[in-house]
Amino acid sequence: MKIGIIQQQNSACTETNIANLSRKIRDCAQQGAELIVLQELHNSLYFCQTENTDIFDLAETIPGPSTEHFGALARELRVVLVLSLFEKRAAGLYHNTAVVIEKDGTIAGKYRKMHIPDDPAYYEKFYFTPGDMGFVPIRTSVGRLGVLVCWDQWYPEAARLMALQGAELLIYPTAIGWESSDTTDEQRRQLDAWRTVQRGHAVSNGLPVIAVNRTGHEPDPSGQTNGIRFWGNSFVCGPQGELLRELPNDSEATCVVEVDLKRSEQVRRWWPFLRDRRIEEFNLLTRRYIDD
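RESULT FIELD:
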C-alpha cells in the first residue's frame, strides 16, 4: 500500500492551513497514495501553549465543516484520509479527535485521544477531555487502522491493545517539539527517545508505524516562553522497526511511501511475541503503581 504523509508548518490562518493541506493531499494522491495521514490538530497553530477560553471557538462538531471539506476531497481523489480535529462534543465537552475518512467521503470512524498531557507549553488537560472510545482499530477499504494521537505514542499498552484487535498499521498524528531552554544534547535525547519508542511499538507488535509531526516555530502567545520549535522528523517504519522514510526536522515535506502489509505476517512467524505473552500474569498492569 502507498501511504502519503504531510509534515506542515502552520500559520495563524486556518483557511490558509487547510488550503495548503488540500493541495498537498492532491500531490500525494497524484503519486498513487491510497492512505494519507495528516499531523495533529492540523487546521491551526498548536494552541495548547496557553490556557485561553476563547480558543474553544476553534472547536467543531464531527460531522462538521472539516469532515465535509476533506470528505469531498477524499471522494474526489478516492483516498483514505486520517484527520486530527478539535472536537466539540457538547457545550463544555471537547476532545482531541482523529477522524478517518473513507474513499467515498464518509466517516469510517474516529478515535478520541486517551492520554492527555499537562506540561509547560502543552496544557492539553485544559482543552481536552480524555477519550472514552477505547483503543479500537478503524476498518477501512485499505485495512484496519490503529489510529492513536501524539501522547499516546509513549504508551506500549495502547499500541498492544490496537494490535490485539487486529490493527494492520499503527498511526500517530503528532505535535511535539523542543522548548527553547533545552540544550542541544537534551534535544537530541528527546528526539531519539520519541523515534525509538515508536519503532519499539512496531517491533513488539510486528506492525508498520506511521508518525506524522508538524514542523516550524510557533510562538507562545503569553510570552512566558520562547515558544515551541516542532521537530518534524515524521517517519514510516516497517514491522521490525526498519526506517522506510524519515522527513527533515526543520522544513515542510511531503512524501509517499510504499508499505508491504503482508510482511507483518512473516515477521510475526519469526518473532511470535503474541504467542508467548504470559497473559495470566499481567493483571497487575491495571494498577497505577504496585506498592510494597
